[in-house]
């Protein structure tokens, strides 16, 4: 029980912010390109309460970490009206890429915090573990969301890059995306596809350590 409580205490803040800031970024970039849907609904904010899904943001991620060591979860999706974007097909790429992009940015910020703590000679294990968890969580979220499986962000990016007819055909995979992801997870194949993306992100983060 003590170990479980310690893990929750370490991962709670990194998980909540990794997921909620990810969602806020989608809404912010969508607004930049002409869609105010998320802004009008109050979702373009760094207030985690606006984005938290009690099950997907708290229960599932922490449960996965405790039981498997793998991070998986979700927040309340930020609504985007693709038709309101100035150039929907092009702008979709930037809106989708914003989420993984801020996860990489947050991993770098956690790395800088870890470096600062060590540089100041602060050896409090809790603070160091939270910073390390922040790096790990955000790299996993970045890699997971970059997988080219609709409706993940990577799938949206691929759809935006493909010619229109191919993009429409590719988007038809979306209703089955979650099942594909779960199948990859339970067969153990997911880590194979995540590793290259995770390693690229980790290499970037190491530049700041």
Distance between the termini: 33 Å
Secondary-structure content class: mainly alpha
Radius of gyration: 17 Å
Query: In which range does the helix fraction lie?
Result: over 70%
Biggest sheet, open or closed, and with what strands and sense? none
Overall number of strands: 0
Task: Write structural notes for this entry.
This protein has helices at residues 2-32, 37-40, 54-67, 88-119, 125-146, 153-161, 164-171, 177-187, 190-206. The longest helix has 32 residues, at 88-119. With 209 residues, it is an all-alpha fold. It is globular. The protein contains 9 helices and no strands. Helix 4 packs antiparallel against helix 5 (125-146), helix 4 (88-119) packs across helix 6 (153-161) and helix 6 (153-161) runs antiparallel to helix 7.
């Amino acid at each position: 029980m003590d170990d479980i409580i310690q893990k929750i205490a370490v991962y709670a803040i990194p998980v909540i912010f990794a997921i909620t800031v990810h969602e806020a970024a989608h809404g912010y970039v969508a607004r930049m390109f002409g869609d105010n849907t998320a802004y009008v609904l109050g979702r373009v904010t760094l207030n985690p309460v606006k984005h938290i899904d009690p099950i997907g943001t708290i229960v599932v991620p922490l449960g996965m970490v405790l039981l498997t060591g793998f991070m998986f979860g979700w927040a309340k999706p930020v609504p985007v009206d693709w038709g309101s974007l100035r150039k929907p097909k092009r702008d979709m790429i930037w809106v989708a890429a914003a989420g993984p992009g801020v996860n990489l940015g947050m991993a770098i910020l956690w790395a800088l915090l870890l470096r600062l703590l060590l540089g100041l000679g602060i050896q409090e294990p809790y603070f160091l573990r939270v910073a390390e968890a922040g790096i790990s969580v955000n790299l996993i979220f970045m890699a997971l969301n970059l997988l080219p499986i609709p409706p993940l962000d990577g799938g949206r990016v691929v759809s935006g890059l493909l010619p229109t007819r191919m993009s429409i055909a590719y988007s038809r995979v979306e209703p089955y995306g979650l099942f594909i992801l779960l199948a990859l997870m339970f067969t153990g194949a997911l880590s194979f596809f995540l590793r290259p993306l995770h390693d690229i992100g980790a290499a970037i983060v190491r530049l700041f350590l």
